[in-house]
Amino acid sequence: MIRSELVQQLAAGNPELAQRDVEAIVTTFFDEITARLANNGRVELRGFGAFSTRARDARVGRNPRTGETVEVDAKRVPFFKPGKEMRVRLNVGE
Fold first, then answer.
1. 3-state secondary structure (DSSP) of residue 15
2. How far apart are CA 42 and CA 77, in angstroms?
3. What does the DSSP 8-state code read for residue 17?
4. What is the model's pLDDT at position 60?
5. Largest Cα–Cα separation, the chain
6. Which segments of the chain have a pLDDT < 70?
7. How many CB atoms lie under 10 A from the CB of residue 10?
8. Bridge partner list, 78
9. Which of 24, 26, 63, 82 places its Cα 20 to 30 Å from the Cα of 14?
10. By the 8 A CB rule, do 19 and 7 touch?
11. Rounded CA gap, 11 and 8, in Å?
12. Residue (of 1, 82, 79) closest to 46 by Cα position
């Protein structure tokens, strides 16, 4: 599902809200998650999962096109850990 599909689903399920209001809600939701992660925070949505960041060390990589070695700086990357309820729902058929 992409962002526009999410907005359409939410708008269809809440006909009392205008499309632009739903878009503003979705934008605010994602902006708040991003801001919290940018400040080394964590966002937990019960029953869904938790968003956090993980540190990646600097390393030497390779350009796949040329094979040339490239220095890759240390960075933080987003990480998502699904909650127990989501794992159970995803593995119902197993």
1. coil
2. 13
3. S
4. 96
5. 57
6. 93-94
7. 16
8. 53
9. 82
10. yes
11. 5
12. 82
DSSP per position, 59-79 = EEEE-TTT--EEEE--EEEEE
How far is it, in rounded angstroms, from Cα 33 to Cα 18?
Answer: 23
Instruction: Name the residue type at position 58.
Output: A
Rounded Cα distance between 27 and 14, Å, is 17
The pTM is what?
0.75
Alpha-carbon distance of 79 to 35, in angstroms, equals: 14
Name the packing angle between helices 3-13 and 19-38 (round to 10°).
Answer: 130
Residue 94: its pLDDT value, please?
Answer: 59
Predicted confidence at residue 93, as pLDDT, reads 60
Question: What pLDDT is stored for residue 7 in this prediction?
Answer: 94
Q: Which of 27, 47, 31 is nearest to 39 (CA)?
A: 31
Q: Which tokens belong to 52?
A: 């956090």
Q: Determine contact, residues 47/83, Cβ cutoff 8 Å.
A: yes
